[in-house]
Design a protein that fits this description.
6-stranded antiparallel beta sheet, 2 domains, mainly beta, 47% strand, 500 residues, Jelly Rolls, single chain, Neuraminidase
């Protein structure tokens, strides 16, 4: 059972409420991050800070487990549309020459290992963006508005020379993706207020429709189908279908039949799918605004959209481009098991607020028996919160495949502008990453997500999570917690071994 300390009831500081068997030293989830190792990077991405894109946007590389997250290039400007050359080293991307002005985008190449100098491929006053390599890496395709009639497809040599317009249909053309098996190019065509996918054939004379654009609702975002990505054998294409102002789903279309399968929920805002070399996995970006997860976070899922897990949960960043490297790992064949974490053995610390009801034991089970903390003034706001740290039941932190987090909590006396926040500790960068900022409903809400980032696990298998009520100045209220539950996914443990 959790044993509360004897402290003044008027101001509850949950410094170290430690479960039975707890001892001295650093609490779980507060230790140093895991070592990155020396393996090759597995994917690349563009990360842009939402409130400071001009100062914090960069091409980066990482392992799929979130470790070895490193900046590749250091240059001013906001990049987007990142693609990896077939050699696994060269990169092509767009960059705004003047931040916040998309019309100044130009196409550049660089390299993953820094062995090649950055080269600007387009030098003009027009908007050039959305590049991709041909399957042999000798050519690129990109979008340019240099004809003066809107964005059109252009093809050039890999050094930018010999640029020519491709199959101008008189409609806007976006998001080209070159087939990995032949010279076909799939792209978006906007006609009549709807984007549909077309496939430009190898002769460059014929373009055939692939999708119908779906049942979108017109608004500031033109509805329809965008950001297509071929599968490795050319038989299917994954893409984004924009439904309305806030919603977009990932879909898959069979090239031979045109049959479309929707892969994600219509309440989400998914984008930028990329398919793994074996065709079994996806990387993509997604916001989940109805769940309090704003911004385009980075996700991983199986190719059918199932088993979606957060890779980088920090709400401060959007991800403006993704691609996979040759070392991207295949889906593991090991049998996995889901193991509940013993929250009763956790440490509760660094809380803030005045206890209003229940005891800390009440967070152990989802039984509608609530633990309450009244807010206190802090930083010009009214705040109440608890911070939980626990050692996860894996023998080796690198055995961890995911942590499912389920929080049942609410904010009493909620008014517009209040926030119910859930954050997890980033052990590598030694700070908290906000995952969810939900608008309180006045009732107990269920917040659920699965995190697959070893950057958020410390060397002692520790994991930290905070639940916070954040209210405006002079608007006191109450943080109400029914339960906090964690479940880890790990390889099946041999009966002859044990895990804590």
């Amino acid at each position: 059972m959790v044993r509360p300390l004897r402290i003044p009831p008027s101001f509850l500081i949950l410094a170290t409420l430690v479960g039975c068997g707890g001892g001295g030293g650093e609490s779980p989830g507060q230790g140093d991050g895991l070592p990155a190792g020396d393996g090759p990077p597995e994917f690349v991405f563009v990360r842009s800070r939402r409130d400071a894109a001009d100062r914090d946007t960069a091409l980066r590389r990482s392992l799929l487990n979130g470790l070895a997250n490193e900046r590749i290039l250091s240059a001013a400007g906001v990049e987007s549309g990142l693609r990896v050359h077939p050699d696994g080293n060269r990169l092509v991307y767009a960059r705004e020459r003047r931040t916040g002005q998309p019309a100044t985008r130009e196409v550049f190449t660089g390299s993953l290992d820094g062995s090649l100098d950055e080269l600007r491929l387009t030098v003009n006053g027009d908007r050039d963006e959305m590049p991709d390599w041909s399957r042999d890496g000798t050519r690129i395709v990109y979008v340019s508005d240099r004809l003066g009639s809107g964005p059109r497809l252009f093809e050039a040599m890999a050094d930018g020379s010999g640029a020519v317009a491709l199959h101008d249909e008189g409609f806007d053309q976006l998001d080209p993706d070159w087939s990995p098996v032949d010279d076909r190019i799939v792209y978006s065509r906007i006609e009549g207020g709807l984007a549909r996918l077309f496939v430009l054939q190898t002769d460059r004379r014929v373009s055939l429709p692939l999708t119908d654009g779906g049942p979108g609702i017109a608004g500031t975002r033109t509805p329809g189908d965008y950001q297509a990505c071929w599968g490795p054998d050319g038989s299917a294409v994954w893409f984004t279908r924009v439904l309305d102002e806030q919603s977009a789903v990932l879909c898959r279309v069979e090239v031979a039949s045109g049959s479309v399968t929707v892969l994600t929920a219509p309440t989400d805002d998914a984008a930028r799918p990329r398919v793994s070399p074996d065709g079994a996995q996806l990387l993509f970006t997604m916001a989940r605004p109805t769940l309090g997860m704003t911004g385009q976070r980075l996700w991983r899922a199986l190719a059918d959209g199932s088993a979606a897990t957060l890779l980088f949960p920090d709400q401060r960043y959007d991800y403006l481009g993704i691609d996979m490297l040759p070392a991207f790992p295949a889906v593991e064949s090991d049998a996995l098991e889901a193991v509940p974490v013993e929250i009763a053995e956790s440490a509760i610390r660094n809380g803030l607020g005045t206890r209003t009801r229940g005891t800390i034991d009440n967070v152990l089970e989802p039984d509608d028996v609530l633990y309450g903390l009244g807010t206190v003034p802090s930083g010009g706001r009214e705040i109440a919160g608890i911070d939980l740290g626990v050692a996860l039941p894996v023998d080796d932190p690198f055995d961890l495949r995911g942590v499912e987090v389920v929080v049942r909590a609410g904010v009493g006396d909620a008014v517009p502008g209040d926030i119910l926040r859930v954050a997890v500790r980033n052990a590598t960068e030694r700070r908290n990453d906000t995952v969810v900022e939900a608008e309180p409903t006045g009732a107990i809400q269920t917040i659920r997500f699965t995190l697959a980032s070893l950057a958020h696990i410390d060397r002692d298998r520790g994991f930290g999570i905070a639940v916070i009520a954040d209210k405006g100045r002079d608007q006191p209220g109450e943080l109400l917690i029914d339960s906090i539950a964690l479940t880890v996914t790990r390889p099946v443990v041999d009966p002859g071994t044990t895990s804590d």
